[in-house]
Design brief:
7 helices; about 20% strand; 4-stranded mixed β-sheet; about 350 residues; alpha/beta; 7-stranded mixed β-sheet
Length: about 350
Amino acid sequence: MDFHQVILLLLLVFLVDLSDRNLKANANHNATGYKDGTSKCNIYEGTWIYDYSSSPLYGTSTCPFIGLDCQKFGRPDKKYLHYRWKPTGCDIPRFNGVDFLTRLKGKKILFVGDSLSSNMWVSLCCMLHAAVPNANYNFKPDNFPSTFTIPEYGISVNFLKNGFLVDVVKDKTRGLILKLDSITTGEMWLGSDVVIFNTFHWWGHTGRAKTWNYFQVGDKVVKEMNRMKAFKIALTTWANWVDHNIDPSKTKVFYQGVSPVHQNGTEWGEPGKSCLGETEPIEGSNYPHRNEGEAIVKNVIRGMTKPVSLLDVTTMTELRKDSHPSIYAGKGSSFNDCSHWCLPGVPDAWNQLLYTSLLRNV
């Protein structure tokens, strides 16, 4: 073998090795992992870092439709505005609204779920509007679905209120029946390029907050049943609908993970307290209380045949007992909201992680 043949052989070995490295790098991009060029990590495992230089991407003056604007409604502290999510072992890209709009130009994004979906939807609308403040936009929250469009980019970001995902039907004698094994409104979920589903918050409602009268599975109708069992049946119904109706080559499906409440301080070691008056997150990366809904969501998604990316935000959000509206939700001091989230706030981090996930797919 002469000198030139040796060089050619070494060059071929180098190219094969380079190709293999690229394949392995691409394989590292999964539902939860993110590779930033130097390392790979689970972007949902980490801690909240106080960083005063990390200011919100929008505020009262730059987004006229915030809704749960806690500063506007008199919240006196501002420290909660300057925490950023830091995964263990890597950095994630800061949300870039112009890049988001460019990548998803001409696309339709749809949020389907309860008021926590709306929380995330409004957050994303504000983040995009603030990125191109001089662009024309249309924000119509009272439409069905609610819509936000920026004509210059041909993008629409919509929200369809559906607290259970499964059917709720009216019966003349029984009232409202929650049909755990039935979805007849799914055609409204079709036709979007990205869909983010969510349900959990309403399943625990009791008393006056309960918005239905009976549960039904098949022909069996009952007044009450174990709520987590009901949730699992309904979520499995949704999963079967996705498996039979979604074309992954046309639609990217996400599930917005369970958003926790902070009504009971016993969960984080402070009995008698709620989110009211909390100004700092829980330190560290673990929350001492187990969320039943989170385990059910992961189990159901694991059994699906079509790809669904879980926005696994439960644990990171459990740490933010400080970021609820509490009495600054615009409903008076007697209303303590420990379920939803101030804007700007935690939902912005959810959308940053959605953006990070979409970077791998668009």
